[in-house]
């Protein structure tokens, strides 16, 4: 048989529960704040089209028709769209 908890023991357990609930709510709030930013623009192309666009981008850089800075920006945009497609598929 267990001994009944003391007042201090009960207070500590209740404090731990409150801290755990507060941390859980903070994690939820952080997720809510992050998720809307990630899916700001709708995706109107398929994954295959994005991969083809990425290949064409590399070809343009190799041929010298596109600067490295501009290619980096476009590649980042394509990568974000591919990540959105992957997230929606899950």
Order of helices and strands: HHH
- Give start-end ranges of low-pLDDT stretches: none
Query: Which bin fits the share of residues in helices?
Result: over 70%
Q: What is the count of β-strands?
A: 0
Taken from the alpha-carbon principal axes, the silhouette is rod-shaped
| Residue-averaged pLDDT | 85
* Helical segment count: 3
Overall number of structural domains: 2
The amount of beta strand, in percent, is: under 5%
Major β-sheet profile: none
Return Rg in Å: 25 Å
Global structural class: mainly alpha
Distance between the termini: 49 Å
Written account of the structure:
The chain has helices spanning 7-38, 47-63, 68-89. It has 90 residues and is an all-alpha fold. α2 (47-63) packs antiparallel against α3 (68-89). 0% of the residues are buried. The model has no long low-confidence stretch (mean pLDDT 85).
Which descriptors apply to this entry?
90 residues, mainly alpha, 2 domains, rod-shaped
Topology readout:
Layout: H1 7-38, H2 47-63, H3 68-89
Helix pairs in contact: 2-3
A few lines on this structure:
The chain has helices spanning 7-38, 47-63, 68-89. The chain is mainly alpha-helical.
């Amino acid at each position: 048989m267990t001994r009944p908890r003391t007042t201090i023991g009960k207070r500590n357990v209740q404090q731990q529960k409150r801290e755990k609930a507060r941390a859980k709510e903070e994690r939820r709030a952080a997720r809510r704040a992050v998720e809307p930013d990630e899916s700001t623009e709708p995706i109107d192309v398929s994954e295959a089209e994005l991969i083809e666009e990425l290949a064409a981008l590399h070809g343009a850089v190799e041929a010298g028709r596109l600067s490295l800075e501009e290619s980096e920006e476009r590649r980042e945009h394509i990568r974000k769209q591919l990540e959105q497609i992957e997230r929606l598929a899950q």
